[in-house]
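can u do me a favor
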């Protein structure tokens, strides 16, 4: 379980991202608007003209479930995020938020390395956890979750209102120890 200090740090970083777009306390954050405000361009794999057709086929047809989003750094310092166009829009919003959280937390980009002629990506568990948790908190802050509980809103209603998945709502319930009511269908 996360410490209260870590949770407070997460909520503070998330609020900083919400402040960029001046989102009201209980308002819905639009990650695409945030990306624009942070001068980050968003692309689909099909937008990358130099991408090998075999790689494009792998990313979009053969194994589109193997990736969600990734940030590229242009030679002029420009930040570019490539989103998986196959994923549900709610998943795209969460993936974009995670990438924007990496940027706001000043995480170093992962690298591709060759290991016995196999290309692998470096992965930092701490940074990935931080980025996911901050991104999730920016989309569903503690105040939103507490307000939803007070108003008797269930996970499906919160997910619909904030355009996130019910799984993300349940993640925030678990992290925060805030149980939303279950409404029978």
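np, heres the sequence
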């Amino acid at each position: 379980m996360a410490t209260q200090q870590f949770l407070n740090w997460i909520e503070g970083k998330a609020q900083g991202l919400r402040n960029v777009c001046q989102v009201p306390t209980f308002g819905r954050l639009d990650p695409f608007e945030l990306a624009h405000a942070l001068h980050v361009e968003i692309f689909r794999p099909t937008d990358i003209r130099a991408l090998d057709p075999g790689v494009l086929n792998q990313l979009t047809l053969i194994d589109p479930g193997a990736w969600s989003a990734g940030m590229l750094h242009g030679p002029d310092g420009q930040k570019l995020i490539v989103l998986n166009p196959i994923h549900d829009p709610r998943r795209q919003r969460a993936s974009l938020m995670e990438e924007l959280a990496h940027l706001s937390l000043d995480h170093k980009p992962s690298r591709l390395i060759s290991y016995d002629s196999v290309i692998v990506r470096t992965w930092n568990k701490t940074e990935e956890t931080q980025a996911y948790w901050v991104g999730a908190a920016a989309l569903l802050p503690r105040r939103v979750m507490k307000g939803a509980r007070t108003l008797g809103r269930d996970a499906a209603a919160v997910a619909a209102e904030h355009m996130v998945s019910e799984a993300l709502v349940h993640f925030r319930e678990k992290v925060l120890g805030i149980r939303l009511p279950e409404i029978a269908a």
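The radius of gyration is 18 Å. hope that helps!!
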